[in-house]
Design goal:
heterodimer, A: six-stranded mixed beta sheet, four-stranded antiparallel beta sheet, 10 strands, globular, B: 419 residues, alpha/beta, 17 helices, disordered C terminus, binds adenosine-5'-diphosphate, binds magnesium ion
Chain lengths: 242, 419
């Protein structure tokens, strides 16, 4: 069974056509990257998969569950990190993790186990006891990524998890994702407009442009197919053909 | 340096004037509110003037002496319409005065003339009926006082003292009507202001909390969790209510202290029960007032949550919620000075339709003992609240909660930002 199956997805906001027949498939255990420039429709697609927006038309399934009809069940097996997300400024990191864990955990022990994992993943140590408003952007993102992964979701949906971070923090976040996924077999669907980082991180990528997939495959395959040095070049070539 | 100053000042003025909150608070509200208040006060003063054009007062003369004759003549010459009341004692005089629909009575006790002739201090007593109907009543008793004062000035220095008394619900009370009036006024002014502040504070809180969840995308995170969305809505509401109530308790402590210091104006040794006389809220009145305030608070919060859920950031949410404030403050000012049921029917309906008028009406009803007004208000506001909550819940269940994005700048200049 595919982790995510998106079939001919269309989303229209008033006069804006954000998605124009998007189709792709994410296999169980994969790290899958949606890449494209700003406004391509990445966030819209991820929000539909995360049950936050309704498709105008098309079909989306997460582990065989339709995101419209089985939204409640989908929410139980996913974890979603919104683009540029923040956290409650006046809570401490640890309070935030406990708060979030309480919704996914069945028992207090399970919640505590989740928080322990998140503490480890975030690598924030003692700073977790400080209020979130004292955190740098990079620390906040580490906290939020840890939050998204601590529940060991079957599917983690991460919208631009490294955007706006410095080299050190992006590297840290990327390694969290890579290591954790291997360890727990979580499937990850992420988006990025940084095509180079995706090349390093993802098993498979889809290039999205104006609400449509213009190319899909393993980074190596794509580079060979388009005779390109890297994914950025692939994207330029594909979109100028399109 | 002057050029820099000019640049900064001009930027500051532009920035502030274009801020919708400032625009609303400093320009639109006063421009609308003060004329309305002016019109109300004008009509009150007209009534006051009408009522004191002719001072009609009963006089019970138990002295039948020269000086009591002179006193009555002097009052008549000053323009008072004197109705003589013949009674055997003071109690009967008070009964007769009420029976003949007079509102004020001057009692000239036996020995009045004798005391004055002998150079001793004489005494005069006045009784005024106090119903708590407001400024007109108080102006009337003041008019009689000033007439007596005028007579006194024409005589030898300080020939007599006047002891002022009130008649409340047919019972004489050794307290000047002006004291009772001040007592009632302070209740009528402080309570509505405290209520309005609590409501405004709670709305501001709820709007800020919802809008900051939107701005920070924490709402988006919450919505992707396996939580019932109605639970999220209720969590927001009750969170804001708890914080607002903590604030309200602080106000209440201050308020009780304030009321305590006002009530000491009425001497306790005379042993009057203010509650029974309808001058202080009864326990039932307090409870109904509390319930009324709670349901209004709930409706205000639900409204603030819905409105701010449509906005994109905290600033816009606060500004848009601010547009509701005049709806809260205008009835508050009106109800301070006026009896809602004395207004014209359309105005009455308008004020009663606004849910935030009801806790203020309930506060008044708590004093007058007219509990039906408070109960009716509670029922109306509850229905209103349920309707708002229903809309809020419907709204929270759709994707509109994420895609609606009112931004005040965009209202003026629509421009889509691509992210
Ligand atoms: N709530 C919304 N209302 C109207 N238009 C929207 C909304 N959300 C996104 N869009 C539009 O849809 C298009 C795709 O946006 P988005 O999915 O955010 O792109 P990306 O995440 O790839 O940058 C853009 O043109 C954007 O302006
Ligand atoms: Mg995006």
């Amino acid at each position: 069974m595919a982790a995510v199956e998106v079939d001919d997805l269309v989303k229209v906001f008033g006069s804006i056509r954000a998605l124009e027949g998007l189709s792709f498939r994410v296999e169980d255990g994969e790290i899958y990257g949606l890449i494209g420039p700003n406004g391509a429709g990445k966030t819209t697609a991820l929000r539909i998969i995360a049950t936050l927006l309704l498709p105008t038309s098309g079909r989306v399934e997460v582990f065989g569950l339709n995101v419209v009809e089985k939204a409640d069940e989908v929410r139980k097996i996913i974890s979603y990190l919104p683009e540029e997300a923040g956290a409650y400024k006046n809570l401490s990191g640890i309070e935030y993790l406990r708060f979030m864990a309480s919704f996914n955990a069945e028992s207090k022990d399970e919640a505590e186990a989740m928080v322990r994992d998140a503490v480890k993943i975030s690598g924030l140590g003692e700073r977790l006891h400080d209020r979130i408003k004292t955190y740098s952007k990079g620390m906040k993102r580490r906290l939020l990524v840890a939050r998204a992964l601590m529940t060991k979701p079957k599917l983690a949906i991460l919208d631009e998890p490294t955007s706006g971070l410095d080299v050190v923090h992006s590297f840290y976040v990327r390694s969290i994702i890579k290591n954790y996924v291997k360890e727990f077999g979580v499937t990850v669907l992420l988006s990025s407009h940084n095509m180079l980082e995706v090349e390093y991180l993802c098993d498979k990528v889809a290039l999205i442009h104006k609400g449509k997939i213009v190319a899909e495959g393993r980074p190596e395959e794509l580079k060979t197919e388009y005779k390109a040095e890297n994914l950025e070049e692939v994207f330029i070539k594909v979109t100028s053909y399109a | 340096m002057l050029r820099d100053l000019k640049a900064i000042v001009s930027k500051e003025v532009k920035e502030l004037v274009r801020d919708p909150r400032i625009l609303l608070g400093m320009i639109i509200v006063p421009v609308i509110m003060f004329p309305i208040m002016g019109a109300v006060m004008h009509s009150v003063f007209i009534q006051v003037q009408e009522s004191i054009k002719e001072v009609k007062v009963g006089v019970a003369d138990f002295d039948h002496g020269n000086w009591s004759r002179v006193l009555i003549e002097n009052l008549t010459n000053l323009g008072a319409n004197i109705i003589e009341i013949s009674a055997t004692d003071e109690i009967q005089a008070i009964q007769q005065m009420q029976a003949s629909n007079l509102t004020d009575l001057i009692v000239i006790p036996e020995g009045f003339s004798q005391n004055i002739t002998q150079g001793k201090k004489a005494r005069l007593k006045t009784y005024s009926i106090y119903t708590g109907s407001g400024m007109v009543e108080s102006a009337r008793s003041e008019a009689i006082n000033s007439l007596i004062e005028a007579v006194k000035r024409g005589w030898s220095p300080d020939p007599f003292t006047v002891s002022e008394n009130s008649i409340v619900k047919g019972k004489p009370l050794p307290v000047p009507p002006s004291t009772l009036f001040n007592l009632a006024m302070s209740q009528q002014i402080v309570t509505p202001i405290a209520i309005a502040i609590i409501i405004v504070m709670a709305m501001q809180l709820a709007a800020t909390s919802v809008a900051s969840e939107k701005e920070e995308k924490t709402l988006e995170t919450l919505l992707s969790l396996p939580i019932n969305r109605f639970t999220i809505l209720m969590g927001k509401l009750f969170g804001s209510i708890i914080v607002a109530l903590i604030g309200a308790i602080a106000y209440l402590i201050g308020f009780i202290y304030y009321m305590g210091s006002i009530f000491t104006l009425v001497p306790t040794e005379i042993g009057v029960d203010l509650v029974e006389l309808g001058l202080a809220p009864s326990p039932v009145g307090y409870v109904l007032m509390g319930i009324s305030l709670f349901v209004s608070l709930l409706s205000a919060l639900a409204l603030a949550v819905v409105i701010s859920a449509f906005t994109e950031d905290v600033r816009s949410a606060q500004a848009i919620v601010g547009y509701i404030y005049p709806v809260i403050f205008i009835p508050m000012f009106l109800l301070m000075y006026l009896d809602v049921f004395s207004l014209s029917l359309p105005l009455q309906i308008l004020i009663l339709a606004i849910p935030y008028s009801h806790p203020i009406l309930a506060a008044k009803a708590a004093v007058t003992g007219n509990h039906l007004i408070a109960i009716g208000g509670i029922i109306y506001v509850s229905i209103f609240t349920v309707a708002i909550l229903y809309i809020a819940a419907k709204f929270f269940a759709t994707e509109k909660i994420l895609t609606a994005r009112i931004k005040l700048k965009k209202l003026r200049k629509p421009k889509e930002k691509v992210t």
